[in-house]
Design goal:
This protein has 90 residues and is mainly alpha-helical. The chain has one domain. Helices cover 83% and strands 4% of the residues. The chain is rod-shaped and about 65 Å long. The two termini are 24 Å apart.
């Protein structure tokens, strides 16, 4: 029962940290790229090229989400294991 709670908490925390971090980083990078507008690929006199903005956002969100979620899950798991062994030694 306790293990199920801890696994649920680990997954929820990891997904929250991963999605929040990925969203913030994606938002920053996409806005930065749109403002910088290299070679006029994000916007020109005809308006914003939304498909390119979308492609940029997806290409930043997905890898960031996956990496941060996995890393935070590993860190959270190691903290749980460390606390377990530390409490049992005392």
């Amino acid at each position: 029962m306790i293990l199920k709670k801890r696994i649920k908490k680990l997954l929820l925390a990891s997904l929250t940290i991963g999605s929040t971090s990925a969203f913030i980083l994606t938002l920053i990078i996409t806005i930065w790229e749109w403002i910088e507008n290299p070679s006029g690929i994000f916007h020109n006199e005809n308006g914003t090229n939304w498909s390119f903005v979308y492609d940029t956002a997806i290409s930043w969100f997905v890898p960031t989400f996956v990496n941060v979620t996995v890393i935070s899950a590993i860190i959270y798991f190691l903290i749980i294991v460390f606390k377990h062994f530390y409490r049992n030694k005392l």
